[in-house]
Structures are given as structure tokens and as C-alpha cells.
Amino acid sequence: MQEKITAQFSSNQIITESSDAAKELYDKSRYGTLTADNRVQLSFIEAMYLMEKEKLVVVDRRSKEISAEALQKKAKNLSPNFWVRYAVYKDIRDRGYIIKTALKFGADFRIYDRGVKPGEDHARWIVYPVHESEHLTWYEFAAKNRVAHSTKKRLLVGVVDDENDVSYWEIRWMRP
User: Fold this and answer.
1) 7: CB partners within 8 A, 6+ apart
2) Full-model pTM
3) Would you state the pLDDT for residue 109?
4) Residue 150's domain is classified under what CATH number?
5) Does any domain span residue 103?
6) Which CATH number covers residue 46?
7) What is the separation of C-alpha 140 from the centre of its chain, rounded to a whole number of angstroms?
8) Which residues are catalytic?
């Protein structure tokens, strides 16, 4: 069994130890962002996923382990939509895709084709996670569609139900 990677939670950041295992996590699957000192800075969502997969242990400044529940509570305080976003992230990762944030595109995430890593090619989709009870106005929908079209990506809406199952709706521009 592979040894777990340790990451420290401090000032709302989660940064791994400087180790070959942490660098490999980035190199192979593009989790997080590689720092200059070969540590990996992870998002709350990435850390939660890796904790669930038993690949990561998160500790505080005193090296006391932080539970997944405690980390989730901190994440929900920073982002009320955290659990819906996590459900989509987890589902996409479990399907074998690399998924990264897409804030600069005005979306939640960008998704790469299987086998493609960021930097090797462009993402194929941008995805917006929503709960099935949420309502989008036509203006919000049009804005999301325009962002996808202007960035030359396909638009996915990941709809999360009360059982945390995710359905995807792909929206494309068509010319009649």
C-alpha cells in the first residue's frame, strides 16, 4: 500500500510536504499547483477527494490530523456551494478525467479529455455545477453559454440531485 502524503492546512491553504510522492501526484494526475520548492498547493475540493481516496492526510500547524468532516466544514464556510461542486468534481475524477478550476474562464471547472494533461492541450469542456433545485434565468444561462463559446469549449451543466448523483447536460451552439 502506498504511503499517504501529508499536507498542512494553514491560512485557508493546503500545501503538501516536499516529497517525490507529492510531486508524482502532480505529474501524473495534475492535482493542485506545483510550487517552486516541489510542494503541491491543493484546493479544498482536491484535498477532500484525495483524503476520501486515502492518499492524503491533512494536518494543522501543530501536526494534529484534521478530519475530512472538519475540512469540509471549513470549505463550506468559504463556499456555500461547496458540496455541489465537490459532487461534480468527484464524479468527473472517478470517470478518469482531469478537472481543474476555471475561474479565469468565468466557470467553476474545466475538464480535459482522458489522457490529456493541462499544458499538453486545451480543455474540452467548462462545467457549472448546480443543484437540481436551483433556478437559472435565461440571462444566466446565456452568459454561461457565451463564456463557453468564446473560450472555444463545450458547456456542461452538472446537475446534482439530493442523493449526490450527477447528470450532465451538454449545451452547444447550432446554426439552423
Assistant:
1) 14, 15, 16, 17, 40, 42, 47, 56, 57, 58, 59
2) 0.92
3) 96
4) 3.40.1350.10
5) yes
6) 3.40.1170.20
7) 22
8) 112, 122, 153
Domain termination residue (choose one: 23, 55, 78): 78
Q: For 25, which DSSP code?
A: H
167 with 86, same domain: the answer is: yes
- pLDDT digit string (tens) for 108-152? 999 999 989 898 899 999 999 999 999 989 998 888 888 898 889
Asked if 93 and 99 touch (Cβ cutoff 8 Å), the reply is: yes
Contact call for residues 158 and 166 (beta carbons, < 8 A): yes
Exposed, middle or buried, 41 (CB in 10 Å: 0-12/13-18/19+)? middle
Count the residues in the chain.
176
131 with 88, same domain: the answer is yes
Alpha-carbon distance 30 to 18, whole Å?
16
The half-sphere exposure of 174 on its side-chain side, counting CA atoms within 13 A, is: 4
Q: What is the pLDDT of residues 54-73, one digit of tens each?
A: 999 999 999 999 999 999 99
